[in-house]
Request: fold
Amino acid sequence: MKSVMKPDMRVNVAGMQLRNPVMTASGTFGYGEEFAEYVAMESIGAFITKGLSLKARAGNPTPRIVETPGGMLNAIGLQNVGIDAFIAKKVPYLRSVNTPAIANFFGNTVDEYAEMAGRLDEIPEVAALEINISCPNVKHGGIVFGTDPASAASVVSACRAATKKALIVKLSPNVTDVVVMARACEDAGADALSLINTLIGMAIDLNRRRPVLANITGGFSGPAIKPIALRMVWQVAQAVKVPIIGIGGIMNAVDALEFMLAGATAVQVGTASFTNPGAAQKIAEDMEVWLTANGVADIKSLIGALET
Amino acid sequence: MQFTSLILSNIEVSPGYWRMRMTAPAACASARPGQFLMVRVNGAIDPLLRRPFGIFDVGTYTPAQSGAEPQPYLEMLYRVVGKGTAMLSTLHGSDLIDVLGPLGKGFDLGAPDEEKLIVGGGVGLAPLYLLAKELVKESKVRLFAGGRTRDDILCITEFERQGVECYTATEDGSLGECGLVTEALLRRLDQLQGRATIYACGPHGMLNAVAGIAAERRIPCQVSLEGYMACGVGACLGCVAPGRSHSPETPDFRCVCTEGPVFESGELKWGE
Reply:
């Protein structure tokens, strides 16, 4: 009987060697600690914090979330503890786990983005930075920069100058051509691109004749968006050289592996962690099962291996 | 804690209201009144999210098999309001469901020598039964249960069996007095001698009225809130409620799932 080799699950993203390609998406995994009971941190590749800003932000009025078939809308409004409380209260937990923590952040202006990148650069427990230029739920600090290539490039170059850590840029799908945005961010110095953030959507309460969300519109996520996300990852993979982190409706290992075939080096699990707090760990474990069952020795061989 | 529960029974106790009993790990025996569960009604992606339910009761049952040890169970009382709860109501004994919990902070049981006044509106009675069971051990407990019609007054005999003195009020007069439950509460407060604590769960309008009464009469009051939540563990930040000092300029949001669902009514902002 031939012995079964354990597949090599490791991937490299922007200079980080990850034990497997599974990350948890910003805004769906708190600051890590909230999920400690449900996910063994050393079972996933990396985790990404809730989006951080210079000052604490309270976020939008309620209702902030609503479920729709196969998905959900959220308009949290980037509620977060702010960089100082993050350092004082959340970083000690990061120190205790043996998994890279990636800090997601945003600012109201290019200068604020750069200042945040500089502050995060000084935190040894932060392995890499993910720039959020794609939050659809606030007027400033997000989509304003994520829908115009020149603005996106200015944010990325300002952050590039402020940090030596790996810089991931999270792209919005709410644009005419995601490839134009991807190229602008790559040219401005991004080490990796993560996509997609949520799609702008809305839900209406017919009887009350009102929008369900207090913010009227919100970011649409969950399995319903997966085909759009796969298409965008595939398009961007054809156009850029930097690694891509695929995000959008990943509920299981098969979904994650499909993103890798489309060109993603790693993936982020988001809304699935709400449905099942242990989802990220389960997906990483099941990907290994799939590789073993299909005789794939190295997960890297699947990246961009889509046959068209 | 995440666990798989075997449904033991799922019964419609009043039109549109269901009571489900399910198996639970031993650790759930110490669930506190006011804590809640996040239940996945099926394994599919629609509905995608779990549903939060207050814990109605905790106890033990003896399996039919002779000689088996008593096993812990949890009960939920829920109202069919949409797709998820409609699906839940179709489940039967021996179906399996995926549960997270017990979650959140429960009620503070207060001092033994004071009177306990519990106010529940409709399915808001759900987390109040386990509370009443705990409170009657040391205090005089009165329940004020309100609803639109008699169908919204749930499980009163269960409360009475625990030694709770029950007052009911319906808006259409089909059970108890005709009107709002807060009127019965006010009458009791007028007769009150000595100290008391109010506990309330129900529609926002009722909680708002009860919080106002408690503030005016300077009586400690704990309320259990509902919130639209995706995760139940403090990550999605969907379920926040405005705190006392909240304003658009100085926002003060409390997370219902982890800081609540039970709050001192004075900690929250009311009247909106």
About this structure: Chain B touches chain A through 29 residues (CB under 8 Å). Residues 57 and 130 of chain B are 5 Å apart (CA to CA).
